[in-house]
Amino acid sequence: MEGQSKNKIEDLKRNLYDVKRNKLNQAREGVIHPIEYDVKENWQKEKEEDSKEDKKIKRPPLSIFKKFFILALVFFVGAMIYAGYNFFGNDRTIVSDEKIEIKVVGNSFSKAGEELPLEIEIINNNSANLELTYLSVEYPKGALNDWSNLERLPRDNIGIIGPGERIVRNVKVSLFGEEKSVTNVRIGLEYHPEGSNAVFTKEIYYPVTISAAPLSLSFEAPNTTVSNQNITFKVVATLNTSLPEENPILKVSYPNNFIFDSAVPEPAYGNSVWSLNSLTTEKPLEVEIKGRIMGIEGDEHVFHAYVGTSKETNPSDIIVNYSSLLHKISINKPFLNTKILVNGLDQDENSVASGSNVTVVIDWSNNSFDPIADGEIIVNLDGNVLDKNSIYTQDGFYDSLSNQIVFNKSTDFSLSEIKPGQNGQSTFNFKTTQLVGLLDSVKEPSVSIKVSVSGRQSSSGYDYKKLSDFLEKIVKIKSDFQIASSAYYYNGEIPPKANAETSYIVSWTLSNSANSISNAKAISSLPIYVSWVGSVAGSNENITYNQATREITWDIGNVSPYTGIKTNKEVSFVIKIRPSLSQIGQIPMLMDKITLTGIDTFAKTEVTNYSSQIMTSLNNDPNYKQISGKVVE
Length: 633
Fold this sequence. Notes:
By secondary structure, the protein is mainly beta.
């Protein structure tokens, strides 16, 4: 079998590669039965029929959203076509803002506060009516062009303005502002186009130049000063035209570091507001303000003055501003640094007792980099308690006629040329008048020390410039506030007897000189062998006794000037003593010394006084002057 298979394979190879082999002689090993297929010749038509069948397949229906979108798109296209037709093809009913003319005829200059007549002309150049038309006129109330605070004229109901129609209206406005400033008048026309409910507005602005302000403000003030140096400046308000009748005021705004001292005339409200009700074109208002500026070299401080109207409910606030002005003052380093020491203290206000001696030292030094020639210090002394006969100086000259002390190179050679960094002192003394015992009353007793320092300094070596500084100190006299105490025999043993009781009436009496005293109080204490009985009947004074501390307190309160001279103020109470055997032969103390305190309202300082102890010797009792007060057995 294996050999036959190989022979067949060899035969197949020979037949396969034999070119001359006879195909007819090839053996057939099997029969393949044919299968007939119905192949159509018009296959292209069949394909087209299949495509048509595919097209007949049903597509899903449109959604509601797509239908709405298509409907909206159709409506929009229609609206655009309609609008285009009306805009381009129906110009007869269209209203254009540009075809409305608003013209103003009037003076372009006006004095502030005066009535300015204006003629307003409105022309409708459209082919359609302007319906429900209103004319409005408004402008700022004050001088600051603040459009948040307007003056509005009543709206003018014009009605219908036909095509080509011309409307004329006359109005009057009153404008405010600073000189040469421009204030705008806003003119508006509100209208409805014919056949429309829409509201449109046409506006124009008419500028008016203020030829004269209602009033002029001016500052008369220095441009520079020294820190803590007294300065005086004026604010002048001059009426040019007219002011409104409703609460016209002048208000001055101070910088934060300004210390207000006084003003003439006095402010109507606070320290910075003055009424202008009395201001006329013939009589300006001049306000003189005194104070000090605290700061360092190079600081710049701004003072601002305003004029306007205020509310009755808040008369110090300007609601409509008509004019304003500012002034700047710079802080410079003093060329000659000067201090005034009063009794060794460098403070603006000093307080001393009446009749006391006052020593004043003027300490000076050259702060600049150049020498100062011809230095001069002039002291002006003034006051109602200055003892002129007591003024004394060693390095200066006191001129009693002018009441001045002069220090210069003729009295002190060191002032002829003060080199950079050089310092020195000028000293004088004076006494104050004793207030106790004066026949005439003195109000606000004080002495003013005004010091002016001057010199010459050359920056080029040839041209000298005048230099000057000014300082002031006030010496206020404290009121002579005193208390006196006395004791009188009331009942019991006299002289006092050991182990027996003796009662006394004690009186405290006040005296005061020139100044009012507030929060006055007198305190004393009782020794252990003395007892409190109570105040005398009929006394209205507030006197109390503390059993724990054994203190008697008289809460006095306010004390008027010249109490003890023009009026009396005293209190009386009863105490009793029961001496011990150990005190026989002694003069016991009934009450310890009294401490009197209070606040001097003018000198703004505390005043304190003391009275001596009260003994059983009864030195003030005229009926028992001969009794020694010693305790007997």
